[in-house]
Amino acid sequence: MQAPAITLEGEARIGGALLFPLLRLELAAGQWTCLLGASGVGKTTLLRLIAGLDTGAAFTGAIGASDGAPLAGRIAYIGQADMLAPWLDVTGNVVLGQRLRGEAPDMAKARDLIARVGLSGQARQRPHTLSGGQRQRASLARTLMEDRPVVLLDEPFSALDARTRAEMQELAGDLLQGRTVLLVTHEPGEATRLSHRALLMTHAGLSDLPLPQAQPVRDFDAPETLQRQAEMFRRLRSAP
Description:
With 240 residues, the chain is an alpha/beta fold. The protein has a domain at 84-147. The chain has eight helices and nine strands. The protein has helices spanning 43-51, 90-94, 96-100, 107-116, 132-146, 162-175, 188-194, 223-238; strands spanning 6-14, 17-27, 32-36, 58-65, 75-78, 150-154, 180-184, 197-202, 205-209. The model has no long low-confidence stretch (mean pLDDT 93).
């Protein structure tokens, strides 16, 4: 399936109070868009609206894909909670989507993804025996297993140590090439490495953040990456 561009235009309210004003979010086809901003401005709400999930907010506006086709069935999603099924082991969780659709699980692909996220030794373990970082990696493997053209990621690397986070960023950047990706993150370094476009969300709306000229995934220690990361951090600190 070819990855479409996605546009969301509208405003959202919770209990009559404005969550975010009229805005227009455009996700370029086959590219990563990163969304940053303080807690409570509506980043996760935007992501869940695109996913077609309940948000608790009243949204007035429209969401559409550039090819005019429905988004349902074309989205893979990782929320802030890993949402692993506690009665299944890691392998069972990774192939859960295929089983729920009545498909024969691609076990070779599942084993490969589990290995690539560093969980081969935990493939038969259930979620309660895993660390928070291991659970997050299992959730990432399950999302990659879905092989969807649109991928929505809500802080998918937040529980990982610095080394593993860098490795999982690189893995996701590699395996999600050509997909339309929206990543919600609080980490300027993550956005600087991964995004083709980075946006700051405040209660006033959206604005673009500076990025290096090099294409993602960018080297974490490249001078321009570090410079843009610092500029992004200053913008975040000074945002209203």
